[in-house]
Amino acid sequence: MTALKVEKGSLASATVLGAVATGVTAVSALVRAKASAVVLGVAGVGLVAEIQQLIALLSVPTTALTGAALTRRLVDARARGGAEVYRESARQSAMTTVVFTALAAVAVVLLAPWLLSVPAAQVSAPAALAGSAAVATAMLGVYTQSLVVHGDFKRGYFATSLNAILAASFAVAGVVLWGLPGLFAGLLVAALLVGGVAMRLARASISPGRWSPAASVDVSFARSAVRFGGASLASGLVLQLALSAIRYGLLRRGGHELNGLFQAAWSMDSLLVGTLTTGLSAYFFPRFAAAENAAALQGEVDAAARFLLGFGAPVLLAFAALRGVVLPVIYSSDFHPASGLLGLLVVGDVFRLLGWVAAGPLLYRNEVRAFVIADVSAAVILGSVSLALIEPLGLLGVGVAQVVAYAAYLPLARRLLRSTTQAVLGVGVVLKGLALAGAVLVVVVVADAHPLGWVVGALAAAGVFLGGAGGRALVDRYRRLQ
Fold first, then answer.
1. Based on the domain organization, do 16 and 44 belong to the same domain?
2. 482: pLDDT strictly greater than 70
3. Would you say residue 477 lies in a domain?
């Protein structure tokens, strides 16, 4: 494989555009959830969640098709030949993804009445439309990822954002006009329309010619996807079990209210982590896969850690400072008690994100077993420590557990990276991470100690940004303008 060559400055573009796409997708999900709640009520929203959860579980291998396996396939295609080879690989991948997802969709339609204990007449049409929407969305994912791996972040994330906007618009109109089936019909129409747009974008950006799914299934790609899907399934399943254990412990400690506060804090933290990693993963994961040797991989790992610390530090500090202001705005003033938990989650995110830099190459260098060991270990520690601390500490016990889990995850992922690939996450990076975690904790304490404490934290974040990588980027931009 040959090293990928991407234009200078594209890392910043990938991060910013990825963050924007993540934000648009999050807003789209909130709009759809609000419309579902208003039109369908509590029971209807519950049924929506159950159908989507069933599709997500049965489509785990499909997630791998549009994730690690597809990235590796596209990187290999780019190394083997030109744009035509790349295009044909994408087309075959699209058909394979459609077949896999369609099988999952059929299973959902057949199993939904039995697993959800709902009459077939009530659930069959929504399940069929939801499955069809999943097929169209998975196919769209192949084309957006083909653009991103090719280095065209602008077109790739444009298609992602456009799908989110149209999905919200059509789903709201559908649920108002047709109820539950209309919600999924709206998602299907949006994915089909944007799929056509993504093909045109790929034709303009990568290679002219047909971009519709090929007529054949790539068996070797399917086999690779199932393997990666198994890794995703193992990691995701253990994490879901850990979260279920946490919710059970919180329910016993403080009822549904404590669970609601946890859900709000966890959702906000997931959005933060997703915003920081979406663009970085689009930029670095193909490079992890394409690195020709240990030295090349080491360079990519160093660059990922350097960029994450440089641009992630002010974001984490600012979020830690402003969480008490943001939570009531996103939810309501009733959710302010979740701000303490959210602050500790952000402290744990420092170790989580650096561990992500070490664990990412494991999956994309085909070290699936090592990747699963790291991810499963973190989830097990998170669940078990949370259960031990919820009774004495309440919500804060989950926050402490996150810090402990990912403080253990970082050295484990670091060791596995070194033993399997010969690359290493440097001691200097780990020490900087420890310093950043300490700084985030100080900001959390200061912000909680005084009504205006968040101002001090926000100023600290601005100072770190201007004095670090962000400041250097602004200076470089000013010099170019001069």
1. yes
2. no
3. yes
- Is there a single domain that holds both residue 290 and residue 159? no
DSSP 189-255: HHHHHHHHHHHHHHHHHT-SS--SPPSS--HHHHHHHHHHHHHHHHHHHHHHHHHHHHHHHHHHHHH
For the purposes of burial, counting CB atoms within 10 Å of the CB of 179, is it exposed (0-12), middle (13-18) or buried (19 or more)? Answer: middle
253 shares a domain with 201: no
Total domain count for the chain?
2
In this structure, what are the phi and psi dihedrals at residue 77, rounded to the nearest 5 degrees?
-65, -40
Are 243 and 203 in the same domain? no
| Cβ pair 58, 50 in contact under 8 A | no
417 & 462 share domain: yes
CA–CA gap between residue 387 and residue 397 (Å, rounded): 8
188 and 279 housed in the same domain:
no
- Residue closest to 265 by CA, chosen among 249, 243, 284: 243
Q: What is the pLDDT of residues 194-253, one digit of tens each?
A: 999 999 999 999 999 899 999 888 777 777 776 666 676 677 778 878 888 888 888 888
Q: Where would I find the H helices in 66-179?
A: 68-80, 83-115, 120-150, 153-178
**What's the pLDDT band for 95 if we cut at 50, 70, 90?**
very high
Q: Does the structure show a pLDDT above 60 at 408? A: yes
Domain stops at, among 192, 217, 242: 217
Q: Which of 158, 190, 217 is the last residue of a domain?
A: 217
Say yes or no: 235 and 179 in one domain: no
pLDDT digits (tens, 9 = 90+) for 418-461: 999 999 999 999 999 999 999 899 889 888 886 666 666 666 65
SS3 468: coil
Q: Which domain holds residue 183?
A: 10-217
Same domain, 376 and 308: yes
* Distances 296 to 11, 267, 303, 356 between C-alpha atoms, Å: 17, 36, 11, 18
State the burial class of residue 23 (Cβ atoms within 10 Å of its Cβ: 0-12, 13-18, 19+). Answer: middle
DSSP letter string over 294-324? Answer: HHHHHHHHHHHHHHHHHHHHHHHHHHHHHHH
Contacts of residue 158, Cβ cutoff 8 Å, sequence gap at least 6: 201
Categorise residue 404: left if φ over 0, alpha if ψ from -120 to 50, beta otherwise: alpha
pLDDT by residue (tens digit) across 28-60? 877 887 787 778 875 676 677 667 766 766 666
